Amino acid sequence: MSLVQPTDPVPVDKLGRTHFIGLGGAGMSGIARVLLQSGAEVSGSDARDSDTLRELEEMGAEVHVGHAAENLGDAETLVISSAIRETNPELAEARRRGLRILPRAAALGALLLGREGIAVAGTHGKTTTTSMVTVVLQHLGVEPGYVIGGKLVTTGLGADAGIGGPIAVEADESDGSFLMLSPTIAVVTNVEADHLDNYSGIDEIHANFDAFVDRVGRTLVVGIDDPGARRVAETARERGKKVLTYGEAEDADYRITRIRARGFTTEFTLSKAGGVSVDGAVAVPGRHNVLNAAAAIAVADELGHDIEVAAEGIADFAGAARRFEPKGVAGGIAVYDSYAHHPTEIEADLSATRAALESFAEEAREDGGEESGGRIVAVFQPHLFSRTRIFAEQFGAALTLADEVVVLEVYAAREDPEPGVTGELITSRVGHGNVYYTPDRGDAVRLAADLARPGDIVLTMGAGDVTELGPLIVDRLAEAAELGGE
């Protein structure tokens, strides 16, 4: 995988019949859904069947399981992701025919044409922030369009065309594809080193964000606490863009104070420079989620909505798939799933979990009970060999925040294996002895369930198929609880 060549979006009514390779993926399926709602003809294929494919088929898409040249039919446009290899028979056939071939982001960019586009960019927090923007606008009576990398809990969907008005989308910097979007408003949550299989280093990442600034039509909403994002704000101002900032910094336009955990809910106060102060609460843990909420409120304010009502709307946010998603409770042990796959994300989620456990313990003491003593059992699956090699030390430091750590083998995704790069690179760097490495998924389930005790939280973490382990851990915990009760 490498940085993609920017391609100008084509208006939806000019795409003709559009075929997607990897139609069942979160990004592809969302775009396809909105196109179908817009009256476009859509077809696509995926390596395996899924509920997502069947939902799109019910909406009118022509769906194929497996890849073959004949699947293209009479398509005029082919949409691909950067993970699609040149050997794919559908891509090869499209090139032979001379069809229009668009990167996924160019197809996403087509959805923004003619609408007030809101694009959320940044190394971390894109899905959650885009979801919060959507939920807040819905609370305000707007029916926005949205394309999100995970399903909203409130709607059960990852995308919807909405009814005119604004459309909120994720702007993916991982392969440079966000340079194919031209939003009216953009959010930049943070800018860190990541995706170094594509980028030569942080300087190239900064250069791409600088180029993204030029794509924004009106306003940038920037997380000022992050040094990389602050740099983007400075660049945007120099280039004459309107900039609104949010964070705990004293110079933030939307300043966050009084962050406090109440179990898995996080309360905060937001003060607009020269304006009102409002109290809010978001039903997910962690300072990082409060910052995401502040970005959503700032976007709503910039769109002309009442900031107090926008803050109330944050309370409607019930989460997004794989973003601290509850998987079940058994034997007094709660299991959650997180998409965290970068050291900063792992540290944020584990710190948030710790704060929630401490809040529960404090409540127990106030009620005259005993301190719960809940611990964190982290089950982590590294994602990409390159990321594992580059950030092994930082992964180990972040995972040290958990009381018990189970590390799986690396999820290869789009990469070929690297000699000597395994999950053991990380376990050897965890700062305590309660750490286990296993390449066997079944063994990881057993370990996690056996290590956990009542009051603990088990957190599966990673961008790969580790998400499938949460329900299995819940089942094993339930079986153990049943046997213990006999």
Automatic annotation (TrEMBL):
Residue positions binding ATP: G122, T123, H124, G125, K126, T127, T128
Start and end residues of each Mur ligase C-terminal domain: 322-464
GO process terms (BP): cell division; cell wall organization; peptidoglycan biosynthetic process; regulation of cell shape
GO CC list: cytoplasm
Keywords: ATP-binding, Cell cycle, Cell division, Cell shape, Cell wall biogenesis/degradation, Cytoplasm, Ligase, Nucleotide-binding, Peptidoglycan synthesis
Known pathway: Cell wall biogenesis; peptidoglycan biosynthesis
Ranges for domain Mur ligase central: 120-300
SUPFAM superfamilies in UniProt: MurCD N-terminal domain, MurD-like peptide ligases, catalytic domain, MurD-like peptide ligases, peptide-binding domain
Domain Mur ligase N-terminal catalytic: from-to ranges: 18-112
Location in or out of the cell: Cytoplasm
Ligase keyword on record: yes
Catalytic activity: UDP-N-acetyl-alpha-D-muramate + L-alanine + ATP = UDP-N-acetyl-alpha-D-muramoyl-L-alanine + ADP + phosphate + H(+)
Gene Ontology MF terms in the entry: ATP binding; UDP-N-acetylmuramate-L-alanine ligase activity
E.C. designation(s): 6.3.2.8
Enzyme class: ligase
InterPro entries for the chain: Mur-like_cat_sf, Mur_ligase_C, Mur_ligase_C_dom_sf, Mur_ligase_cen, Mur_ligase_N, MurCDEF_pg_biosynth, UDP-N-AcMur_Ala_ligase_MurC
Biological function: Cell wall formation.
HAMAP family given in the database record: MurC
Similarity remark: Belongs to the MurCDEF family.
Protein name: UDP-N-acetylmuramate--L-alanine ligase
Biological source species: Nocardiopsis algeriensis
The encoding gene: murC
